[in-house]
């Protein structure tokens, strides 16, 4: 049980599951910024896991803990089996995606469309809960299409709590299943943070994390101070990891030292060497590092050096050292002015 309470604490701040973005390299780097923030994988569908084709997606480094596996699916037995595979692979939490509106996902009846089927979600959660000892959680929206969130969300939450869901993350906007692209569905439906606060009032014992449009650690702290249990950050954590994660251990968890992007680059070098020695490409890692110096002097020369050089044949850690040098030269030139 000690394990479970650790995870509850970790969930004060989390980096959202993001397809194609929060792969193992991205998570490894985020972990260098913050020892405590809860990290999520990209969504992996339960059929892909159960049929065995996607087992490589479970690969991760032991340093990534605490780390949660996000599943997509809607067949309770299959989700239970996928959860078991995930827990066995070492994940600390299994999360069910009830928020993703993409077409591909809808066609398999995954993701946000499940907001319309709370009983099926509850059945899935219960089956996953029986299959594993680790935490089982849900990430959802406030509703879809013409649903009235103030009515459907409490009913949805009551169902998943009854099924044994340990924590929930609420992306505080609707998904529109027709007519909007997945990207538009992350920006256009209006955010309703107030409704998420009301859910905390209705479900005081449920651990609730809020998600959607949060762009600073100040904002995250304000949500925690206002009584929410956790804050999940997606795009800002990806594009600007330094601002979101470098001070997270001290400010959100009250222990640990701040980190710097320079420290993180230095610690990424041996990881990059090992990746390249194993036949990997530099760009598979550095594509997640473009935002490390966002908002700082030299950010542009950093990004340009990586984007011009990291895909070249034979590219290795030298590209990062050159990018750091170029930033340093620029900073010195600016000081001299
Ligand atoms: C590139 C990208 C991929 C995403 N993939 C997933 C996913 O696999 N599962 C999921 O639940 N949400 C996914 N999301 C949604 C995020 O988890 C998050 O809910 C959303 O971006 C809102 O948070 P933000 O405003 O902090 O980015 C994705 C978002 C982005 C930008």
Automatic annotation (TrEMBL):
The keyword Calcium does not apply. The active site is at residue 100. One of its GO terms (molecular function) is flavin adenine dinucleotide binding. It comes from the Bacteria. Transmembrane segments: none annotated. Its cofactor is FMN. The keyword tRNA-binding applies. The record marks 97, 183, 186, 300, 303 as: Interacts with tRNA. Residues 15-319 form the DUS-like FMN-binding domain. InterPro entries: Aldolase_TIM (IPR013785), DUS-like_FMN-bd (IPR035587), DUS_fam (IPR001269), DusA (IPR004653), tRNA_hU_synthase_CS (IPR018517). FMN binds at residues 17-19, 70, 139, 171, 211-213, 234-235. This is tRNA-dihydrouridine(20/20a) synthase. It comes from Sulfitobacter pontiacus. The gene is dusA.
């Amino acid at each position: 049980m000690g394990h479970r309470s650790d995870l509850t604490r970790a969930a004060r701040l989390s980096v959202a599951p993001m397809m194609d973005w929060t792969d193992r390299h991205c998570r490894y780097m985020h972990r260098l910024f913050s020892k405590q923030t809860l990290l999520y994988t990209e969504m992996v569908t339960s059929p892909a896991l159960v049929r065995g084709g996607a087992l490589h997606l479970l690969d991760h480094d032991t340093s990534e803990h605490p780390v949660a596996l996000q599943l997509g699916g809607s067949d309770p037995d299959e989700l239970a089996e996928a959860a078991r595979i995930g827990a066995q692979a070492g994940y600390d939490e299994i999360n069910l995606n009830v928020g993703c509106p993409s077409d591909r996902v809808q066609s398999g009846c995954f993701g946000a469309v499940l907001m319309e089927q709370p009983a099926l979600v509850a059945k899935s959660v219960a089956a996953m809960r029986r299959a594993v000892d680790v935490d089982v959680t849900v990430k959802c929206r406030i509703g879809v299409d013409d649903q009235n969130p103030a009515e459907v969300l409490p009913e949805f939450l009551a169902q998943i709590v009854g099924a044994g869901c340990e924590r929930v993350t609420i992306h505080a906007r609707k998904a529109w299943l027709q007519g909007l692209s997945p990207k538009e569905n992350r920006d256009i439906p209006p955010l309703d943070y107030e409704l998420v606060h009301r859910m905390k009032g209705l479900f005081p014992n449920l651990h609730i994390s809020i998600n959607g449009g949060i762009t600073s650690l100040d904002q995250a702290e304000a949500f925690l101070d206002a009584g929410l249990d956790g804050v999940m950050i997606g795009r800002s954590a990806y594009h600007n990891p330094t601002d979101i994660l470098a001070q997270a251990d001290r400010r959100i968890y009250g222990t640990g030292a701040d980190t710097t992007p320079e420290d993180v680059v230095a610690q990424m070098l041996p990881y990059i060497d090992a990746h390249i020695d194993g036949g990997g490409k530099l760009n598979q890692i550095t594509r997640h590092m473009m935002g490390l110096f966002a908002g700082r002097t030299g950010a542009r020369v950093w990004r340009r050096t990586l984007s011009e050089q990291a895909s070249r044949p034979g590219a290795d850690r030298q590209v990062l050292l050159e990018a750091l040098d170029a930033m340093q030269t620029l900073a010195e030139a600016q000081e001299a002015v």
